[in-house]
Amino acid sequence: MSVDDGLARHLFIRHLITNMRCAVCQGHYEPENIHILDHRDELWVMAVTCSQCRTRGLIFALIKESEGAEGMVELTPGEWDQFQKMPQIDADDVLDMHEFLKDFDGDFVSLLGEPPAWNEGYDRLG
Fold first, then answer.
1. What is the pLDDT of residue 67?
2. How far, in Å, CA of 111 to CA of 16, rounded?
3. DSSP letters along 69-120, please?
4. H or E segment at 16?
5. What is the pLDDT of residues 33-77, one digit of tens each?
6. How far apart are the first and last CA of the chain?
7. Cα–Cα distances in Å, from 49 out to 30, 56, 72?
8. How do strand 43-49 and strand 34-40 relate by DSSP bridges?
9. Distances (CA, A) of 82 to 64, 74, 75
């Protein structure tokens, strides 16, 4: 990836995040409150702070490029119905996640178990 490609991708990701809304107050993220922490291949990790309520969060984004890729598509009607029926995240959910992450050491393998056999040979991050 050339320097120009890297800069373009960096700016594109910042643009995407500024169009996301804060889960707490629904405010938009300002570019100066988006910090790209790391990226490896297609995985990007960003720290964000809401400029309105000052809530901090992490965003993990998988940005894939492929030749001849079609534009993003909306959810199917079945998927939309499924998500509409799910309860909204509330303050208790956020507090539960906060408590979990407070002591979480980042070991997703221990948390979720070993990857499935079909995933053998995949280069793990780190």
1. 56
2. 29
3. PPPP-PPPHHHHHHHHHSPPP-HHHHHHHHHHHHH--S-HHHHH-SPPGGGT
4. helix 3-18
5. 888 888 888 888 889 999 899 999 888 888 776 655 455 567 788
6. 20
7. 8, 4, 26
8. antiparallel
9. 26, 14, 10
Q: Are 46 and 13 in contact (CB under 8 A)?
A: yes
Torsion-angle region of 56 (φ positive above 0: left; ψ -120 to 50: alpha; else: beta): beta
pLDDT of residue 18: 82
**What pTM does this model have?**
0.45
8 Å CB contact between 29 and 20: yes
> How high is the mean pLDDT of the chain?
78
Cα–Cα distance measured from residue 111 to residue 106, given in angstroms and rounded to the nearest whole number: 9
Contacts of 58 (CB under 8 A, 6+ apart): 45, 46, 47, 48
Pairwise CA distance, residues 126 & 124, whole Å: 6
Query: 126 pLDDT band (50/70/90 cuts)?
Result: very low
Per the CB < 8 A criterion, the answer to whether 46 and 34 are in contact is yes
